[in-house]
Amino acid sequence: MTPAGPHGQLDQFFLLSHDLFCCIDLDGRMLQVNPAFETLLGYPADALLGKPCGKVIDERDHGVIEGVLARIVEGRDVAAFEVRARSVTRALHWLEVDPSLGEGVVYVVARVVTERKRVEEHLKRTQQLFEIVGKTALIGGWYVDMDEGKPIWSDEVCHIHGVAPGFQPTIDEAIAFYTPTYQPRIRAYFDACCEHGISFDDTFEIITHDYQPLWVRVIGKAVCDSDGNVIRVQGSTQDITQRKATERQLQLLERSVESSTNGVLIVDAGHDDLPIVYANTAFERITGYSRQEALGRNCRFLQGEDTDPNTVKQLRQGIAAESEVHVVIRNYRRSGAPFWNDLYISPVRDDLGQVTHFVGVQNDISEQREYQAQLAYNASHDALTGLPNRMLLTQRLEQGCLVARRYQRHLAVLFIDLDDFKPINDTLGHEVGDFILVEVAKRLEDELRPWDTIARFGGDEFVVLLPDLAHENDVIQVVERILKRLATPYWQRGGELRITASIGVAMNDGLISEPLQLIQQADLAMYKAKRRGRNTCQWYTDDLNRKVSERVSLRNALQQAIEQEEFELYFQPQIHGPSGRVIGVEALIRWQHPERGFVSPGDFIPLAEDTGQIIPISDWVLTTACRVAKQLNGLGLGRITMAVNVSPMQFQRPGFLASIQLVLEESGLAADLLELELTEGVLMDSAEQAIQALQDLRQLGVHIAMDDFGTGFSSLSYLKHLPINKIKIDRSFINDVVSDHRDAAIVEGVLTMAAKLDLDVLVEGVETAAQYAYLRQQLCDYFQGFYFARPMPLEALLSFLCEQQRHL
Ligand SMILES: Nc1nc2c(ncn2[C@@H]2O[C@H](COP(=O)(O)O[C@H]3[C@@H](O)[C@H](n4cnc5c(=O)[nH]c(N)nc54)O[C@@H]3COP(=O)(O)O)[C@@H](O)[C@H]2O)c(=O)[nH]1
């Protein structure tokens, strides 16, 4: 390129300048460019001259160039401006352009400012980043130059204080934002920093311009000159309100967990061994381990020999599955003492849902467990002997039957009932009775194997289960041992007591579907043993079972009979021998069952006594008999007493006396026409009470006859105290009275004794003339028996009485 123009030095300047020179016409075409222009943009002058300057200007700035040209053409001033130029290789250069108008041309001087622009851009970006950091972290910067003495706040610091950007407070104004509590402290920090260069970093509470309380963290540092003089204090202010709230919440949580009565443990899920990273005070109290001892260890140090492996497995599975687990586990304190730990474990997840920890909440429930165990023990054991009770017996029986069935072994059930225990209890007192029961329990325990079950079934009844017997015969030895051991004397307060037992045995033959049947069977067999004379053992047989089934169905039929009044009263005359007159009748119940036909009272009365059905039956008999007696005595056939059998249960029932009174009132029968026949059995249970009750009845005017005399209790010493009118000699002594001198002796003895006690005697079961003749010879006056009349319905009795009346 050749220098244009004649102006020597200026041309040199044009040629050598580092700045870019260019001359363009008013249409923007390039007329002249200097070498620096060519060099920067990489175009030879030929390629540019005559071309629009837009060729070297970035498209984005074409509009700028056009605007500037237009202003220049209009004659307006144009200040220097910046545009982007593009080299021939498309490299971008920032140019600061200063145009001036010549004659028909525009002179342009341009300076390359690319580097400056880059620095400016960088600064701008940095500033933006600072702003982002400040806004994001709620942190701003400030400084105070010592010579100025006024704080300079960044926009974020202004924002934190609730003031507009650019706000410039004085030192006092800045401190006034702090709450009164914190003002002295920030001032002291600031002064110490200014005077001694001491840095500070603390949290303070401020009240913003718009009255918002905020927590801020303020850091201050001194900047010193080379002499060590503080020339500036600068630092940062950060809004930590949120963090402070979180911290407070955490503190609250921590304090709550610390003061919890439950032990709390946190373990780190990030380590395979799940080490403990936190343990609260309650954990220390419950386990006896300090935090220091526990931290870093896996919880398994709390386990011991008796810890159930299944529970541990359940825990591990829950942890592996990252799910919640609840177990009650046997743990051990530091002292080695075991305790029951009611433990809940829950996974703790982070924001991404990853399990980072497990938290365990534990509670020592040993006392509760012990209490429950005690309750369970009480519920399953007899308080007096400590033996299993019925409930536990049932469970053991079911288990035993199961095992016997599975392994084809034998299981024996022994039903043990003490013989004549009741009189001991009644006469010697409950204390002695209890002593015997406890002693029996001990003796049974001594005689049996640890895995046998001995249960107190009730009262003086014990049930023994002998599981896992190889042979049925093994039972015999056990039973014999028990009978022998129980029969040895019991020593109580220096005195000797003797008691025996009756034992019923039932074997599980594998066919039993309902284990409890075995107890019923053994019970039945025990009753058989009692009947066989006591202090013995009987085995259950199918025959016994048939009898039981029969009893059950009879009981049901009896119930129906009671409800549907299927009974009838028969009457058997009682004869006064010397006159031949009927002086009374005995009411005897009869039951005609629709299908069974006639059922003997000898069969159903004992059953009714066992089941309690005797009560409604007796009520019906008494009411009917009294009504009939009233009717008979109104017929003008003479005085006829009505003898009614009274069962022991009926007699012992509270209100018996009142019920007799009521029946007499309702029927209108005179009391002395009613004769109550009682067996010696009523005296068995409580003779004193029975005597009192008899006296009350006598007071009422009712007659009392002692039935079946000679067959029962037979304590003659009581007889003198009994307020009775009559003795009925049992028919078992009459059968052979003529031929058997022993029966005759008994009858004669009773007659003599009764005469001395001023008691009437009636002889039952007189069937033959010979018997009658013999008894008359013995001066016996009253008779009852088939020889005179069988029991008969009311209609027949009326005919009988009328007939008899005719013959008198
Ligand atoms: N609590 C109640 N018990 C009652 C009632 N009715 C009857 N019974 C008791 O049932 C047992 C059997 O009674 P039953 O079959 O009626 O037998 C009575 C007579 O029929 C029988 N008897 C009378 N004379 C003779 C005789 O010469 N020979 C002979 N083999 N048997 C005879 O004796 C029974 C009456 O006995 P007792 O009561 O001891 O006087 C029996 O125990 C009845 O007591 C009732 O309503 N309530």
Automatic annotation (TrEMBL):
UniProt KW 4Fe-4S keyword: no
Single GO MF annotation: cyclic-guanylate-specific phosphodiesterase activity
Domain (PAC) ranges: 200-252, 323-377
Classification via PROSITE patterns: EAL, GGDEF, PAC, PAS
Stored CDD domains: EAL (cd01948), GGDEF (cd01949), PAS (cd00130)
GO biological process assignments: cellular response to nitric oxide
Catalytic reactions on record: 3',3'-c-di-GMP + H2O = 5'-phosphoguanylyl(3'->5')guanosine + H(+)
All copies of domain EAL, residue ranges: 551-805
EC numbers on record: 3.1.4.52
SUPFAM superfamilies: EAL domain-like, Nucleotide cyclase, PYP-like sensor domain (PAS domain)
SMART domains given in the database record: EAL (SM00052), GGDEF (SM00267), PAC (SM00086), PAS (SM00091)
Cofactors that this protein relies on: Mg(2+)
Keywords: c-di-GMP
Annotated protein name in UniProt: cyclic-guanylate-specific phosphodiesterase
